[in-house]
Model the fold of this input.
Amino acid sequence: MQRFNTWPARSALSLLIAYGVPNLYQAAYAQTAQTTPAVDDTAAASGNDGKQVLITGSRIPRASKEGPTSVTVITGEDIEKQGYRNVFDALSAQTQNTGMTQGADYGNTFTPAANTISLRGLGPNHTLILVNGRRVADYPVAYDGSVNFVNLANIPSALVDRIEILNGGASAVYGSDAIAGVVNVILKKKASGFDLNVKAGGTQDGGGSNQRIQFTGGGSSGDLSGVFGVELSRTQPIWSRQRDFMSSASSDGTAPTRIASRMNVDSGNYVDPGANGCGQLGKLFYNSVVQTSDPYCASGKAKPAYWTTMTQNESENLFGSLTYQLSPKTEVFSDLMLGFNTTQNNTRGPSWTSEGAGNSYFFNQNTGANESWSRRIAPEEIGGATRYNRKWNDVAGNWSIGVRGDIPATSSWNYEAAYNISAYTSRQTTPLLLTNVDSFFLGPRLGYNSDGVAIYAPNPNRLYQPLTPDQFNSITGEAISRNKSWTQTLSLSANGELFNLPAGPVRLAAVAELGSQGFSNTPDPQINQGVFYNQSGAEGASGSRKRYALGTELNIPLLEQLVATVAGRYDDYSFAGRSDGKFTYNTGLEFRPAKTLLFRGNYATSFRAPDMNYIYSTTTRGYYAATTDYYRCQLAGQALAGCAYNNYSPGANYIQTGSKDLKPENGKSWSYGVVWSPSSNFDVSADFWRIQIDNLVTNLDPDIILHNEANCRAGNLDINSPTCVDALTRVIRNPPNAIFQPNAIQNILVNPINAAQERTSGLDFSGKWRIKGGGVGDFLLKANYTKVLSHHYRQFAADPDQDLLNSLTNPDWGSKVNASLTWLRGQWTSTAQVTRYGSLPSADQTRRISPFALVNLSASYQISPQASVSLIVNNVFNSVKQDNTAGWPYYPVGNYNPYGRQGWLEFNYHFGS
Done:
């Protein structure tokens, strides 16, 4: 155990070293962008304060954040004042984030230790995430088992100066991935003295208590200056059983979950458990086990007994940055960020079905019949639900070093040379039943009959006898998988003035990048050794790729009121014995007929190299945590809400493969808009945007496959269409006349393809108004609104367009509003934050459910120049968006959370000047 505890720190440092400079000379993968913070909000709104700084979306210094493409800025103070728990909360609440994502609290997900966003509903892999303008390593486990992404849960909020969101494609500036937008999290560069922040709180309805301590500081001595930060946080889980509306999965009349059952496969009828069968199990699952009329033993509390709707987390994040002034015009810099996270969650308890690795039934020698037995094991039998928690121990490291300054013999040119390496490791521990579980419940296997069916002579009392924790431990083990990813980049950039035109200087920026990237997923070898019950073979996957890039950007003042921006970049990837290169460009115009008015427009081409997970994934066999079989619901004539095949767990088996023949994605985006800023106290903007992706690389979603298959079989879709032909070949079922589970899914075949096209368009509105109220105090009103106008997808070129915006299977929002009002008076500061989400399809996919709004409040009092105290309340009205149309868990998972009202007390103290 001691060796386990020291593994994360050694792992982070060893990865940073092992994939460091020695490998760089063999690589050509470059994905770094050097940017520094934009001017503050006041300067940005007023247009030009004389400063020349870099902003996200351009390598050329500007005096204002407003350019040919809009940029949204979230300050570190906004994160606290508006009730956001962390960087992920702040980003997910932004109106551009219209896509539903599977996060840490999603439940059945491949990545419950990570959080991400989906700008414009185009998926997490189409948004480029930067920290201090540089790329960081992907989370080492693919999102939804398919795409690579950056974990936003691992970015500490203690040292965030601002977050800049570029709302458009930017491959010509940043390279691959920047199709839906760019998020640049910029950490503080300077600090004087030390700051202590202590924050603690919880939920009104129980669970989710959390505490956080942040200690930051910095200073300078001579030519050396630095800043550091430490953030420690702890969050307890929220269990579904702690929320009344979903504490039972049968509160809406749905049949309770089977706990113990015997089925005569030959007749299709359940065998009566006898007078004392279910009675012996009655106290399990919180005294809720009963016998149904079918008959079998069941409980409505079986699902919520294990399900966590907020994960348990412990994290330690550290950051340090040093700058040394070699001369008045040259400085050396270095920064290091380390994150240690331990996450636990639970989405279902242990369950067993006889001969689960085979045909799920056996020949009962005592009865002379083919039978299928099942048993779901309760928390009381294993020593508490946490005994079956899954655990993740993650470590992330990011290190940069470089030099920057003015280029000698020039008056306006400066440069930066930097090396950056980032690594991420994840160790996942999963409890699993052992192969001896069949003999535990059924006794020894006596051989096989002429039909190849296993023979047992079991004692039924064993099925209905509660287990002891020691007995459970004898049939349970742990599988440990190890995953890691890394990226590194060596970059050289420069910018300055080329020559003067009558309207001003023509400025140029250029960049050259060289680097590499890789990942590996190593499953527990015990899986392939047959140690665990009903586990398909698991193959490890690993891969790397190289890249180089050359780019340039020009800022051209055509007239005093008209400025053009032109950028071009060539990126080349080498992987899997092939090389893919792509030139991308963008053009933008800014027209200022008056100092307070800006008209802007931008056109950009983009590309994205296929995710490494898509390329290098080996053939993987497994099962989904839960599946909805729409076809069998149709056959049974059951509505989705009461269908026995809706969201059943464990779900269908799948076979997934990667492909080294995928083509890169090609994208194009354009936007145009207007900004009116008559003063530093008021500004409004409106922008239209459109994004199109051709050759979209996508892993077909199993739920979409099953939905299409059912619609094709029912005649709702043309059975001869390419979509139907594809869906029907991907779902392999038992024959209709099978002895056991006729028409049940055997396997779903999933692999990545280049889909024909996805495109979306919409409108963004934003505004800010500062009001001087004199003795009443000052007010700051901010508002943002995004309206999606269209969203279409076409899997094959010959298919008709699918209208995702109006589809009842698409869980993305069509609109979102974010507004806040801040009041400042004397020592008091308070903020009210309102987020309104647009309508969604209902869970049974028959209608749309109404929009939903959440209100957060915060109030802060400055006790002294050094100390302040704050009260923060999220979800002031204790609202939970419920949806009972498709059964438990009775809320739109992924779109909303069921936490209810949350509150925190926060204390800040500043030491020093």
Observations:
- The chain has two domains: 2-247+308-346+389-435+477-619+657-700+751-911, 257-300+349-386+437-474.
- The longest strand covers residues 476-501.
- The radius of gyration is 29 Å.
